[in-house]
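Notebook entry, structure prediction.
Reason for the run: the old model in the group folder had no record of what sequence produced it. Starting over properly, with the input documented here first.
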Amino acid sequence: MSKIGRLLPLSAHDGATNMAIDEAIVAAVAEGTVPATLRFYAWSRPTLSLGYFQTVAGAGEWSGKPIDLVRRSTGGGAIMHHHELTYSLALPVTDMGPGARGCVYRTVHECVIATLKQMGVAAATYRDTVGVSSGCTPAERSAAPTVAPEGLRPAAKNSDESFLCFQRRTSEDLICGGYKILGSAQRRVRGGVLQHGSLLLRVSPHADVLPGANDLSAVDMNATAIAPTIASRIGDAMSISWQCGELHDAELDASRTICTDRYAAAQWTRRR
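New structure, fully documented this time:
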């Protein structure tokens, strides 16, 4: 039997607000005041988001450029958010085991692969390009919710030291034409898990080594067109029946406080 989930409409905000909303949602999901929630969003300004453990000194290359800077609560490398579709998925967790955690990555990314294929774009997980087994069974997948084109320079591959996330490779990252186009990260809280990720659609002039799915294919996709299909596939795969909804007043109030105290605060962004 499908569980009820909440689907939020695609919206655009500045980087600090986007991160604060994600945090407010997962807190509400963990508390049980709202159901599992899937959110799609964009960025009102080009934004470089630092991984939680990264040093701000690494962002020096972008100093003086017309971009915003924010620090995520999740780890990994820096991401240039510009021409992309970003998603966040907040789930209640009763099983804290690593298997369920990994299966959420795999399930979401497989749904994106299927959506891209439907649009005529071929993508695969990095583990599949190097022949590594996923290890995720259908039973685990069902249980998871309870837990270069011309002119582009080739990106670095398989380097954990690369500053930009999309120049790194992990097993569940999506690869298209030899380039990473989707990466995700998780953050656990007591009773819940937040997974968010970025699907690159087109290259940004602020990170011209990183082409998107449109650059790597003859297909012209936009975030508004593909988000509903991805949501439907995730719902089917995780046995969640999405109902369109909005943020509750309590979540909005919490996100404003979180934004002011953390993501919009220089002390947070420059803490490392």
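Summary: Helices lie at 15-31, 98-119, 126-129, 138-143, 223-238, 249-263, 266-269.
The old model has been moved to the deprecated folder.
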